[in-house]
Design brief:
Helix content: 40-55%
Low-confidence stretches: 114-123, 219-225
Shape: elongated
Radius of gyration: 40 Å
Oligomer: single chain
Mean pLDDT: 75
Number of helices: 7
Length: about 220
């Protein structure tokens, strides 16, 4: 007789609406049936219905357990009989020259009732991080900024540049006409980073025109102090 009872989480759906008293009676009925194989009569109609679902699963598990035990007994008896007849080589040492180490006289008990779990590809369990980041960027929707927003940000970032408004306007109208895409056709995701590169490039070109080396200040224009 099997000394255990297996309960499954999916069975809770059939008993969750029962009262605490009915759940207690059902719990007692399960153990009573597992030990004696007899059903209790004092269960309410609703509790009997819930018990019938659990009883069917218990009967299936018990039958499966008995079949497994019978297979194991047959395997043990067969090995024992072969040992008594001297037809077994279970305890023989395998020669060093032997290349095939497969044992043909040992019965291997295979349970055909094992539940099969669908295989999952390792790629699905451990997705490539680069692909995930790429998908995340593709899902992000770029919202083009307004000229006022770009100008306000530029003034906060470059308060020392006098013609920052004109530089910002050139930046805005250039990329706005291009659909906010780079020269390679790639969509701009961070316009603030693009503005930073644009302004720095303009300042570098202006210094090159005036012949100013790194770290030097630009020469004042005529009439400026």
């Amino acid at each position: 007789m099997k000394e255990s009872v297996i309960l499954y989480t999916w069975q809770y759906d059939s008993i969750k609406d029962l009262s605490l008293e009915d759940k207690g009676l059902l719990f007692d009925a399960i153990f009573h049936y597992a030990k004696t194989g007899e059903e209790q009569e004092q269960l309410s109609p609703v509790t009997k219905i819930a018990f019938s679902f659990i009883r069917n699963t218990m009967d299936y598990d018990s039958e499966k357990y008995q079949k497994r035990c019978e297979k194991n007994r047959e395997s043990v008896c067969k090995r024992w009989n072969n040992l008594n007849k001297g037809d077994t080589t279970v305890y023989d040492r395998i020669p060093n020259t032997q290349t095939n180490t497969r044992r043909t006289d040992i019965d291997i008990d295979i349970d055909n009732d094992i539940d099969i779990i669908p295989s999952v590809s390792p790629l699905k369990l451990f997705p490539d991080e680069k692909k995930e980041k790429k998908k995340k960027l593709e899902k992000e929707v770029f919202v083009p900024p307004s000229l006022e927003k770009v100008t306000e940000h530029a003034k906060e970032l470059y308060p020392h540049i006098r013609d920052i408004e004109s530089i910002t306007q050139l930046f805005f109208y250039h990329y706005n006409s291009q659909g906010w895409k780079k020269g390679t056709g790639v969509q701009i995701v961070d316009w603030k980073s693009a503005l930073y590169k644009w302004v720095n490039e303009k300042q570098k070109n202006e210094k090159d025109k005036q012949g100013i080396g790194p770290g030097e200040n630009p020469k004042p224009k005529y009439g400026e102090k």
